[in-house]
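Homework help board

Subject: predicted structure for assignment chain

Our instructor gave us this sequence and asked us to write out the predicted structure in token form, then describe one feature. I got the tokens but I'm not sure how to describe them. Can anyone check?
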Amino acid sequence: MTQRGDSLEARIGRTARAARKTAGQLVAAAESRKPQRLVSRLWEEFTEASSEVSALLKDPNSWRIAESEIERRSQHLLANKNLGEHGIDPFGFSPEYVRKVLPFVEFMHRVWFRVENHGLDNVPAQGRCLLVANHSGQLPFDGMMIGSSLLLDRDPPRMIRSMVEKFAIRTPLFGTFCMRCGQVTGLPDNCRRLLEAEESVMVFPEGARGISKPIQRRYQMTAFGHGFMRLALETGTPIVPIAVVGAEEQIINVGNAETLAKFLNAPTIPLPPLALLLGPLAMVPAPVKYRIYFGEPMSFEGDPNDDDAVIAKLVAEVKGAIQDLMDRGLRERAGIFI
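My token output:
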């Protein structure tokens, strides 16, 4: 009986393998021209985006913000800020420094990524709030574009404070840039202090896992940390879910140099396909089209010290809201570059 059973299982296995092989061949035959069509479509999109970027560069007045408007927005942001005698707050934020780097930020926002916003008014004009977003793109341009959207496109503007990896703050020059632009080491106590000061704080619960995803896992969020939810419950802070569509394709990543990352004490070192040929230039982002969706604020009640299982259910609600916004963005976009 055992031999008959084994023989039957073997025959079933062979039949299943043959069926899968046949199905695979049929699919391959049906899609034999699909890669060519994809490459052709992407080239058309890239050409259209390049033309749009070139036109914007020829007419800077069409996208540059007027100096008087910069002054108006700057004065609004300065209100109620705890700045020292040198114009810097306890975390290192400097409004004057932000004004100096604003031309670069505005160029990336208006010209390179041509950011399109949806639901900006869902971010409260004042008072504490947590902005929770998906994370991707190898370099944190997604965080920069969320911040620039609230700074350049929202009226009144809102300055956000981002929680970032310790590695970023410790990096020479870049660390200073991060702090002067309002970013803070991602520690619970830092976030708590900012929320108690009625600031808007941006967090990426996926952390380095999200930003360093390979291209085949684009728009698939990784696990969320629970810290932001515990702080929201503790401080009574509303959460604004945010989905960024476009950043996944800005820098193609085929893997991560884990050994090098450990040696440099970095969370991750991405490996773009052209890294060996272009070196650091391989990390220049492509001129993809950014679409950012700001969802309606979500309020939660409960004990911040509850078990992980209880907190996980609340975190899943926020993650689901972001996924819904992301799915909407993917449905609505015409392409990667346009």
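Reply (TA_rk): Your tokens look well-formed. For the description, you could write something like this. The radius of gyration is 23 Å. That's the kind of observation they're looking for.
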